[in-house]
Design brief:
With 161 residues, this protein is of the alpha+beta class. It has 2 domains: 102 residues, no CATH class; 40 residues, no CATH class. It has 4 helices and 8 strands, in the order H-E-E-E-H-H-E-H-E-E-E-E. The strands form 2 sheets. The protein has a 6-stranded mixed beta sheet with strand order 4-1-2-3-6-5. It has a two-stranded antiparallel sheet with strand order 7-8. A hairpin with a 7-residue loop joins strand 2 and strand 3.
């Protein structure tokens, strides 16, 4: 992501590590991918930015050509198993820009997703980055598995960052 330093002369880019982890599978469907963003060698603590679908992760990694096809393939292979993990590095002028990119990526921004369990009625909430209409499986605390579809709107009272 070094092109950002060219757009903002005088601002030295900072390198951030994005730690990606595959969450456990749900009924033979792949688990979502969680990620943490941390400054390399920095004093800040890592920021948990949310969870993503596979398609949402691929879009972020391919954007700006910041990661080679070989690097993306290696990440996908590392994340193909439950609890798999990988780390990628990106340069940004500031943490805020990095978080805005990973959180608000056009087409699959991380948004609150709510669903009520059909078995026990519990309201399940979480923030997931996925394309509108994309679905994933979620397991309720009672054990019931539901297919969740990313809505085309944010819930009332929410706003994108």
């Amino acid at each position: 992501m070094d092109q950002f330093s060219e757009r903002q002369p005088g601002i030295a880019p900072e390198t951030f590590s994005i730690v990606l982890s595959r969450l456990p599978a749900v009924d033979n469907g792949p688990g979502l991918i969680s990620f943490l963003i941390d400054a390399v060698g920095g004093a800040r603590s890592a920021v948990r930015a949310g969870t993503l679908t596979d398609a949402a992760l691929r879009g972020r990694l391919a954007h700006f050509d910041a990661h080679s096809a070989n690097e993306i393939a290696a990440v996908r292979k590392a994340l193909s198993a439950d609890n798999g993990s990988a780390v990628v590095y990106e340069s940004w002028p500031a943490l805020d820009g990095c978080l805005r990119f990973w959180y608000g990526f056009v087409g699959s921004q991380i948004r609150p997703i709510e669903s009520a369990c059909e078995a026990c009625g519990v309201l399940n909430r979480g923030s997931v980055g996925g394309a509108v209409g994309e679905s994933f499986l979620r397991r309720c605390g009672c054990g019931r598995v539901s297919r969740i579809t990313v809505p085309n709107h944010l819930p009332l009272g929410s706003s994108a960052r």
